[in-house]
Amino acid sequence: NREIHHAKMATQARGLQNFISDLRNSKSKEDESKRVAKELANIRGKFTSSSSLSSYQKKKYVWKLVYIFMLGYDVDFGHAEVVSLVGSAKYSEKQVGYVAMSLLLKA
Question: Which is more confidently placed, 9 or 92?
Answer without folding.
Answer: 92
